[in-house]
Amino acid sequence: MFGKRYKVGSKREPEQIDSFNATKKRKMTKLRDEIEKPKPKPKAKKKHQVTKKVPSTRNGDEVAKSEDPQLCAPYVSDIYEYLHSMEFWMEGKRRPLPDYIEKVQKDVTANMRGILVDWLVEVAEEYKLVPDTLYLTISYIDRFLSSNTLSRHKLQLLGVSCMLIASKYEEISPPHVEDFCYITDNTYTKEEVVKMETDILKFLNFEMGNPTIRTFLRRFTSVAQGNSKTPNLQLEFLGWYLAELSLLDYACVRFVPSLVAASVMFLTKFTIQPKKHPWDMALQQHSGYKPSDLKECVILIQDLQLNRRGSNLVAIRDKYKLHKFKCVSTMSSLPEIPAQFFEDVRR
């Protein structure tokens, strides 16, 4: 079908060798003639002004101005608009029930969930997993518990199995099943973890991708940094810290990820500059939330920050005490946020 081909290492006939050498000689002669031939002077080109096309921006969004192709500058607004709408049309499908512990679970409590999340933060650090893996893990846990009654003895098994799935989804080199068995002190066998993984995937219907708090926090952090040429690492790390604290509290489950991310950014800016209004028109436009929309969630996360809630869960606090994170967990906001900060922002 593809014609006759010579195999590697096959012998050529004498006539073929002579023909090959003659062809090669002609090509070499032609190439030498081309090199020795004087080159014609290039024609003068007409001068014209090159206009560089810059993607349209909204409120001076520096992401849209960036030339880094990985930031998808021409599409960033459309991408986040889609992700934001996805939060609502996937309600009940890829979102957990806001009250599943009261309505579905009989043996699992909110405190047990918090302890599990706190431990999974340590596991993620031990295996150097990317933050998105942790957020997806918690999402899978809440989604599974929203429809499946589970005994407290299998809660840790659910946690490591969800992290195994999230690792396969996010990581380049995910930990092996044996690694997750080991981290539980071999409380569960490899077969038990694989069986639970199968049950989770069947329940999720293999719909594993969904926007998380971290997804939106990237965007809001970028907007909050404004046109600064050097990134404000304190702002970034403090946002990461508060966002992970929100994972601990079952009360945050009822809020969609974008609202939690916006609340985190509100509290982050208030913590760093308590006398300045933490919200502006750029953040309001890109997040879609007014300060009044964030009040309940902001106060809840502030209670976590000030140890009014979840004070016995220390993994995240210890993690962000490290100098590589600029010790942001040692920072505290003022006990009360002025009421006027929750009023609508004016242009």
From TrEMBL:
All residue ranges annotated as the Cyclin C-terminal domain in the record: 211-334
Lineage per the UniProt record: Eukaryota, Viridiplantae, Streptophyta, Embryophyta, Tracheophyta
Biased composition, class Basic residues, residue ranges: 40-51
Similarity remark: Belongs to the cyclin family. Cyclin AB subfamily.
Any Gene Ontology biological process: mitotic cell cycle phase transition
Pfam families linked to this entry: Cyclin_C, Cyclin_N
Residue ranges occupied by any Cyclin-like domain in the UniProt entry: 118-202, 215-303
GO molecular function: cyclin-dependent protein serine/threonine kinase regulator activity
Ranges for region Disordered: 1-66
Keywords of the record: Cell cycle, Cell division, Cyclin
Biased composition range(s): Basic and acidic residues: 30-39
Protein name: Cyclin A
Organism: Stephania yunnanensis
